[in-house]
Design brief:
The protein has 7 helices and 7 strands, in the order E-E-E-H-E-H-H-E-E-E-H-H-H-H. The chain is an alpha+beta fold and 177 residues long. A hairpin with a 3-residue loop joins strand 2 and strand 3. Helix 4 packs across helix 5 and helix 5 crosses helix 7. The N and C termini lie far apart (34 Å).
Length: 177
């Protein structure tokens, strides 16, 4: 299971000096700074407890409740990436995604997901203010890239590069000018 928390709030902090903007730092960056809890984070390590005291096994039992609870408490957007990915924004918006496949459980796939969410945010920020929707769209595009990569390379041995390489085809299939 991969956890991505994407902050919709504008943040400032000593780590960034006077820079403001939306952040999608990794788990280590967030845990290193306790000053700002509305940052985003990504999480992929077994045994760590990203949401309260919940283990990965506990999160898998009820990922919807876990995502909603964390998004509500943090003021950000929570993405729990698994076979059925849950995206919650803490504002009563919940998205479930089934695109993607088991071949995407590979090193770097979570980084690709974070990058796609950030890119979608840049593409649609002026038009779409609901960061939960933006994150869910990024999750969907990421899953479609995995499905295209599966068609081309198969699930076994799929790499994060295969997922990224599918991005132009997916965007050409799904995006309108």
């Amino acid at each position: 299971m991969i956890l991505i928390l994407f902050a919709a709030a504008f943040c400032t902090g000593s780590l960034l000096g006077k820079t403001t903007g939306q952040l999608l730092p990794d788990y280590g960056s967030v845990s290193a700074s306790s000053e700002n809890t509305s940052w985003g984070l990504s999480f992929q390590e077994k045994g760590k407890r990203p949401i309260g005291n919940a283990s990965i096994e506990e999160l898998k039992k009820d990922p919807v409740s876990a995502a909603v609870e964390y998004a509500t408490k943090s003021g950000g957007v929570c993405v729990l990436k698994d076979a059925c990915t849950v995206t919650a924004d803490g504002k009563e918006n919940l998205f479930l995604n089934l695109s993607g496949n088991a071949g995407m459980a590979t090193a770097g796939s979570g980084d690709v997901l974070s990058g796609i969410i950030a890119a979608v945010s840049c593409m649609y920020l002026k038009e779409e203010k609901n960061m939960g929707y933006i994150a869910a769209l990024g999750v969907y595009i990421h899953g479609l890239c995995g499905d295209v990569a599966k068609e081309k390379t198969g699930m076994h041995g799929m790499t994060a590069k295969d997922i990224v390489s599918a991005l132009p085809e997916v965007l050409n299939r799904t995006c309108q000018d």
